[in-house]
Amino acid sequence: MADEVLRAERVTKRFGGFVAVDGVDIELRKGERVGLIGPNGAGKTTLLNLLSGYYRPDSGRIFLKGIDVTGHPPHKRFRLGLCRTFQIPSVFKSLTVRQNLEVAAQRSGVRDRTGRIESLLGRLGLDRYANERAGNLPYGAMKVLELAMVLTSEPSVLLLDEPTAGLNVSEKKRLTEILESLPEDITLLIIEHDMDVVFNLASRVIVMNRGQVIADGKPSEVVENKLVREVYFG
Q1: Nearest residue to 213 via CA among 32, 33, 42
Q2: Adjacency order of strands within the sheet including 187-191
Q3: What is the pLDDT of residues 122-153, one digit of tens each?
Q4: What percent of the chain has pLDDT over 90?
Q5: Distance of CA 108 to the CA centre of its chain
């Protein structure tokens, strides 16, 4: 498909005798907002690790912008525009917010680093924390900082692993608003347990259970899926 940006074909990952991801096929198109949901242990984070290059599949292939990246490490996928965040924010706690963004911008090879950093500080509401050490930030602001660091590279594909986990109601609302305001051409794949966040952000939802995709469709369709209701919504 012409606007396809990321595809997994029959991807499988085992840990000893445990099959964490079992023959998964997914396809993401340019600008899609896709929620990835399922019960704990369904294989969601393992799939994200496969897509981003932190794990190599035991079988199957992964394509990014039409390029077979199955054996490519994370930094090579990063150069093709794929970035991700983690359940626990990955920031340099001893550095200030601005210094964190400077490190990220330098790593990304951004030309107008100062302009890009100042723009992100303002857009994401981090300007008031610019000279604070990242380790002293409220948890919600630390999550926003991690997202800002990723956005310095202007990614085309963004994988988010439980971005609102551990946030209070107001922090969750703010982060959701930030994600909603991202450029429309960025493709998002979001692991999230909060269904309100998923349904606010995603136009499509993929459901996993026991390492397999059991549903893939519009949020309204997924909610009415009998198997999904049994294994996930109870």
Answers
A1: 42
A2: 82-84, 157-161, 187-191, 33-37, 204-209, 212-217
A3: 999 999 999 999 999 999 999 999 999 999 98
A4: 84
A5: 18
Report how far apart the first and last C-alpha atoms of the chain are (Å, whole number). Answer: 36
pLDDT band per the 50, 70, 90 thresholds, residue 234: low
CB atoms inside a 10 Å sphere around CB 104? 25
Q: Superfamily assignment of 4-81+155-233 in CATH?
A: P-loop containing nucleotide triphosphate hydrolases (3.40.50.300)
* d(C-alpha 234, C-alpha 201), whole Å: 23
Take residue 86 and report the two structure tokens written for it.
């983690």
Confidence of residue 232 (pLDDT cuts 50, 70, 90): confident
Which stretches does DSSP call E strand in the chain? 4-15, 18-29, 33-37, 59-64, 67-68, 82-84, 157-161, 187-191, 204-209, 212-217
